[in-house]
Structures are given as C-alpha cells and as structure tokens.
Amino acid sequence: MTFPDDLYYTKDHEWLRIDESGEMATIGITDFAQSELGDVVFVDLEGEGTDVTAESVFGTVEAVKTVSELFAPVSGSIISVNDTLESNPELVNTDPYGEGWMIKLQLDDAEELNSLLKAAEYREMVGA
Amino acid sequence: MRARMMPFAGFDMPVQYSGIIDEHMAVRNAAGIFDVSHMGEFRFTGSDAAKTLQGLVTNNVDAMYNGRAMYTVMCLPNGGIIDDLILYRESEDNFLMVVNAANIEKDYAWIEEHLTGDTTLRNESENVALMAIQGPKAIEIVQRLTDLPLADLKFYHFLNAPAGEFFGCEWAIIAATGYTGERGLEVYCPPEKAADIWDAVIEAGRADGLLPAGLGARDTLRLEAGFCLYGNDITDQTNPIEAGLGWITKLDKGDFIGREAIACVKEDGPERKLVAFKMIDRGIPRQGYDILDSDGAQIGIVTSGTQSPILQCGIGLGYVPNDPAFTAAGSAIHISIRSRQLTAEVAKAPLHKS
C-alpha cells in the first residue's frame, strides 16, 4: 500500500495534490480507502463550478455493498471533475493517486492545508 | 486464501476473496465455490415427519419423492413469512430442512411447537458443513473428483453419497440446488471433511477459472437471478403472494399454517407486489430507498439493490402497488437516490441472460 510523500491526507481517507501555483488541489481517495471499499462501481460528484466548504459533501463513492460520502478536505470551488470515472469507476481501485482522481479544487485559503495530515501521519493513522 | 471477514448472524463470514466482481464473473462464466456452512440444518424423522412438514410449509411435501429437493416457505397464521427454506427428502420418514442462519433459533422454536405425532426434530446445524459450487462448469469440476453420477442429477434433485464414497465422508449430500441462477451443486458434509473438499475443488477447478467466492458475490448473483433474501425482500411482514412466491404456495394441498390468510390475499389480490427492476438512469438502488411514481409521490420501497456486474447498471427488488402500471415488465418507476428522482424499468426476473 502506497502513500506518496508529496500529498496531503485527511482522516476521511482523501488525498490532495497541490499544483505549482499553490492554489489548486487535485483530490481523490487513498490506496487504503479503495482497498477497504473493494470494487468501486459508481462515483457521483458535484459539478464544476460548485463551491464547497471544508467537511461538506462533494460526492459519493459506491462499492458493490456500500455507499460512502466524500468530504471536501478544504474550502474552494470545483473547477474540474474527472468524467472518466462515470464509465470507468474501477480507476479508483487501480490507480487511486493517478487516473482515479476525482475533482480539482480552486482553494479559498491555502492556510487550510496546515490542518491536513502528512503522509507519515496518515500512514500511522491507518496502521499501514 | 485471504478473505475479508465480516460478522453475520453470529458467524465470521467471508465477504470477499479476490473481489466481488471477479468472483461474480467467475461464477457466471466458469465456477465459484462458497462456504455457506452458517446455514441451519434441521433433521425430521419418524412416521409422521412428512405430515408435520406438510402442516408447516406452503409447498406440497406429498409431491416429493426420495432424492427430491423442494423450495418453500413457512408462514405465520396471518400469512407472514417466518423463513424460506429448502427441504430434502432422503426417505419417507427422513427429511432435511435447510434454513437461514439468522433464523435458526426462531425457526427451531416455531417448529418444536408444531410437531405432530411420531416426528423427531434435531438441530444438526453444528454438525453439517455446506459448500456451494456454482457456475456452468461447476458440476463438471466436481465430477472429476468422484465416481458418483453427478451429471445425471436433475435440478432440485440430490444424492446421498454412500459412506466412504465421497472424500471418505461418513455421509454426504450432493444436491443440484443453489442461489446464483447458475447450474451447480450444494454439498453437505461432516465439518471435519470440509477443508479437504474445499481445497480439492479449488485445485480441480483452477484451470477452468473457478474462484472462491464470498457473501458479497452471493448477494449480487442472487439479485441478478431475482431470488428473494430473507430479512430484505421477504419478512414476517410480507406474505408469499405479494412476494411472488405463489408458485410454491399450494392452497389445494390441504391445511397448513397460514393457508386461510394466504387464500384471502390470493382471492382479493395483494395490495402490493415485489418486482425486479433495472435502472435506466445512472445510479445504484439500495435497501430502504423510496420508489416513486412519475409525479414524485412515494409508492413503495426498495428491499434489495446493487450494481449488476453483468448488466453494468443498478438493479433491485422492491414492493410497488399491485397495479399493472407499476408491475408489468417495461413499466417506468422512479427511485429516490440522494434526493434525485431516477428512472428505472420494471423487468422480468432473472435480470441477467445466462
């Protein structure tokens, strides 16, 4: 199970990759999360242009047996949604940090990132 | 074999091994083996065993013969379903009843109160292991492991393996029954022999694509087949007529518990009916979601739902008013999923094309 060092993590098992500008985050669920869920068969995401606040629901991910809500790690505006997941939800399992990404968020306040977990902290939390 | 375990009805049960979809497809295309030893087994013996059973279940026990299996339900006097079960007639005074794990104690207590004449009831659940080997190649794979004539077994028939003839088992029942909508077998045997049989079947079927399968795939397979799950689609609050189980309810066989109430429902027509449906819009129906009409009014409830690995869309079972506008194949209904009204189409079970 991998947890890349260059990502931020949340206790709700999401990851964030911050781009060079420091103002945009790509968000998905972690390797641990996809492994716990099993086969992901459906990903339902809020649309582009939606404003989200930290801890609000920005979508749901469904495995064969379960429905899980996705919580925005930080506040911002959704500027891009991974439409590929509509027809290929299994990318969340096969490439959670790459093609399985879910949304790109324009951050409201980069300071919010300070409250997120580093890879080592997340790894410790999930006991992996 | 690494399985993800989950508590179920007091047992630690394998939910999945390699993954629910992999396991599901293996059963549809080749074969899968399930450990379902948690199921309950009751033995009925004595010269009045058949009479006792005839009074307890809705299907006609007198139509059975040695080596015949029968699907049926037990009902309360008001017609509510206590459990669905399979009966196996080994001889005229010896029957095996297989019930749902979660209902073992409830069923046993109920049956004990309703024994008639010379009938002895024994709960053998602790002394019986059960493995289901299911799929188009299942029988062929198990046949490689035994000289018993499995290929001759007709659907819902079984054979008793003579002592020592099947993996050295003192006894074993090999039945052409199952819960997947595929051809296949269910093997009942002493628990101490189960691991040997499990390993041998996995080995024999490896090249064919046989996989060990868990409760997750068992559920998606039975839903595609349109089979009811006790606790979801049928409960003590549902009767066999509305659940679409009229075909196992023989009102003319003589008296049985619940007959009068069920006859009334049949006479008047049930108020609601269990239907199978598939999603037209993208979305997965789940147990407890509301079923709506085209105006958005609630007309029923989803009792089981999942994503179908074969159809690649959401499928489910649910109760709707007994009106052809909602029950006829092709009727449009709507499912409320996260406060959206998504369109589904009522379909005839089985939902998959085997």
Any descriptors?
heterodimer, A: 128 residues, alpha+beta, OB fold (Dihydrolipoamide Acetyltransferase, E2P), six-stranded antiparallel sheet, three-stranded antiparallel sheet, globular, B: 354 residues, Gyrase A, domain 2, Alpha-Beta Plaits, Elongation Factor Tu (Ef-tu), domain 3, six-stranded mixed sheet, six-stranded antiparallel beta barrel, 21% helix
Q: Could you outline the blueprint of secondary structure elements for this entry?
A:
The complex is a heterodimer of chains A (128) and B (354).
Chain A lengths: L7 E2 L4 E5 L5 E6 L1 H7 L2 E6 L5 E2 L4 E7 L3 E5 L4 E6 L2 H4 L3 H4 L8 E5 L11 H8 L2
Antiparallel strand pairs in A: 1-2, 2-3, 3-9, 4-6, 5-8, 6-7, 8-9
Chain B lengths: L3 E5 L2 E6 L3 H10 L2 E4 L4 E6 L3 H8 L11 E8 L5 E11 L2 E6 L4 H10 L6 E4 L5 E6 L3 H6 L14 E4 L10 E4 L8 E6 L1 H15 L5 E3 L1 H11 L33 H10 L3 E8 L10 E3 L5 E11 L4 E9 L2 H4 L4 E6 L2 E8 L7
Parallel strand pairs in B: 3-13
Antiparallel strand pairs in B: 1-2, 3-9, 4-7, 4-8, 5-6, 6-7, 9-12, 10-11, 11-12, 14-17, 14-19, 15-16, 15-18, 16-17, 18-19
Detailed description of the structure:
The complex is a heterodimer of chains A (128) and B (354). With 128 residues, chain A is an alpha+beta fold. Chain A has 4 helices and 9 strands, in the order E-E-E-H-E-E-E-E-E-H-H-E-H. Chain A has one domain (8-110): RNA polymerase II/Efflux pump adaptor protein, barrel-sandwich hybrid domain (OB fold (Dihydrolipoamide Acetyltransferase, E2P)), CATH 2.40.50.100. In chain A, strand 1 (8-9) and strand 2 form a beta hairpin. Chain A is globular. The model of chain A has no long low-confidence stretch (mean pLDDT 95). Chain B has 354 residues and is α+β, with helices and mostly antiparallel strands. Chain B is built from 8 helices and 19 strands. Chain B has a 6-stranded mixed sheet with strand order 10-11-12-9-3-13. Chain B has a 6-stranded antiparallel beta barrel with strand order 14-17-16-15-18-19. In chain B, strands 5-6-7-4-8 form a 5-stranded antiparallel sheet, with helices on one face. Chain B is globular and about 65 Å long. Chain A binds chain B through residues 38-39, 41-42, 44, 60, 62-65, 67, 86, and chain B through 4, 15-16, 19-22, 216, 219-220, 282-284, 286, 306-307, 309, 314, 338.
